[in-house]
Amino acid sequence: MAKQRILPFFLPMQGCPGRCVYCDQQAISGQAQPPSPEQISAALAALSPDSAMELAYYGGSFTCLPRETQQMYLDLAQQALREGRLSGLRVSTRPDAVDEEQCAWLKQQGVTTVELGVQSFDDRVLAAAGRDYTGDRARQGAAAVKGAGLALGLQLMTGLPLDTPALSLWSMEQAIACGPGLLRVYPTLVLKNTELASRYQQGDYRPQTLAEAVACCLPMLKAALAAEIPMQRLGVNPSPSLEAALLAGPYHPAFGGLVWEALKKEQLQNLLQDLGAKEAALLRFPAAELPLVFGHQRQTMLWLAASWPQLALLPDKSLPAGRLLLERGEKTRISDQREFCRR
Questions:
Q1: Would 195 be classed as within a structural domain?
Q2: CATH no. for residue 204?
Q3: Do 65 and 34 form a contact (C-beta atoms < 8 A)?
Q4: Residue 259: inside a domain
Q5: 282: exposed, middle or buried (C-beta count within 10 Å: 0-12, 13-18, 19+)?
Q6: What is the structure's pLDDT at 31?
Q7: Helix 210-226 to helix 255-272 angle, to the nearest 10 degrees?
Q8: C-alpha span between 92 and 99 (Å, rounded)
Q9: C-alpha neighbours within 13 Å on the C-beta side of residue 92
Q10: 205 with 333, same domain?
Q11: DSSP string of 243-307, one letter each residue
C-alpha cells in the first residue's frame, strides 16, 4: 500500500475537553495557534491539479469543535476537492466524540479518513492518563467511523501510567480487531508543564527507556504487519520545540527506524539460525532496505560480520520489500517478512 501524501494542518488543543496528563500539543506541533483560514486557503491554492494530496487536520479533537467551526475548516477544502487538487480530507479526534450522525455528516463534507486517538483499550490506563472514556467506548467510536464508510485510523501510546508491555500489545490486538486502515504508535514522553512532568519529578512515574520502548513496540509492529495493516508512524515527529520541552522518556529522532531495524534483525536471526558460523553463504536483500540491514551505527552489520564472517551481503533491486534470500551452494532459503511476523 502506497503511503498517502498528506497536507497537514495542526489545530493544537482545539476542541479538547481537557488536558491529558502527558499532553502539550503546542510543543509537539511547534505551533502556539492554529493556522488562519487564509493560510489554509493559500496552501490549497498552490496545489497542482494532479497533486493527489489529502488535507489533514491534526491535533486537538476536531469533532469536539462547534459544528460551525468544523464546517468552516471543511468548507475551505471544497473547491480543491471539486477540482481534483485534493483526493480527500482526514481529521483526528477522540473516540468518544464520534457517533453515527457525526460520521455521516463528515462523509457528506468530503472527509475520507477519521483518526482516533485511542491511546489504550485498558480502562485503568485510560483513567490514569485522564482520557475520560473506556475501552468499550473507544470500540464504539471505531465502529461508528467504519459504519459510515470512512477509513479508520487508530493511534496508541506505550508507557502510559499503569501501562505494561503486555497491556500495550493487548491494546494493539484490540485495535486490529476494530479493522483500521492505518495505525500509529507513540511512546509516552515526559514534557515540561504537564501533569506527567510533576509526577515524574515527584518520583511517581517512571518513563520507558529507549530500549524498553523499542522492545515494547516491536511485537506491536509485528502484529500490525501480520494483519496487513500499515503502520503509518512509530514515534513522535522530531522538532526543535519538542526537544526543548522534553524532560525524559524514550525519545529518538528516528525511533521508528530503530523498531524496524529490530524487526529486521529478528528476521535475519531466524533465517540464519542454521547457518554455520564459518559457512560461506550469500544473503540477498532489497536494496531499499540497506539501512535496516546495516542498522543504526552499523550495529546489525557488525553483528552479522561477527556471527557469520563468511556471509556475503548483496543488495538486490529485484526483491520486494521484506523479502530475504539466503543462498548456500545450490540451496536457497526465502524469508518473507509478513510470514515471519505471523509465526
A1: yes
A2: 3.20.20.70
A3: no
A4: no
A5: middle
A6: 66
A7: 70
A8: 14
A9: 24
A10: no
A11: HHHEEESS--TTHHHHHHHHHHHHHHHHHHTTS-TT--EEEEEEGGGHHHHH-GGGHHHHHHHHH
User: Which among 55, 61, 57 has a CA at the least distance from the CA of 14?
Assistant: 61
- Give the span between the Cα atoms of 122 and 244, in whole angstroms: 31
Report the C-alpha gap between 271 and 334 in whole angstroms: 8
Which residue range is the domain that position 319 belongs to?
264-341
Farthest-apart Cα atoms in the chain, separation:
70
Dist CA 297 CA 65 (whole Å): 45
Q: What is the H or E stretch that residue 331 is in?
A: strand 331-336
Residue 258 lies in a domain: no
CA distance 220 to 9: 28
pLDDT digit string, tens, across residues 261-278: 999 999 999 999 999 999
CA gap 335, 326 in Å, rounded: 8
Task: Record the cell numbers describing residue 163, joined without a space.
Answer: 501501562
| Structural domains in the chain (count) | 2
- Give me the CATH number covering residue 329: 3.30.2320
Taking only Cα atoms into account, the Rg of the chain, rounded to an integer number of angstroms, comes to 22
Report pLDDT digits (tens) over 14-62: 878 888 899 877 677 666 688 999 999 999 999 988 888 999 999 889 9
Last residue of a domain, which of 191, 219, 253? Answer: 253
Integer Cα distance of 32 and 26 in angstroms: 5
CA distances from 82 to 88, 110, 335 (A): 10, 10, 45
Q: Which residue has the cell 553463504?
A: 281
- Do 147 and 279 have their domain in common? no
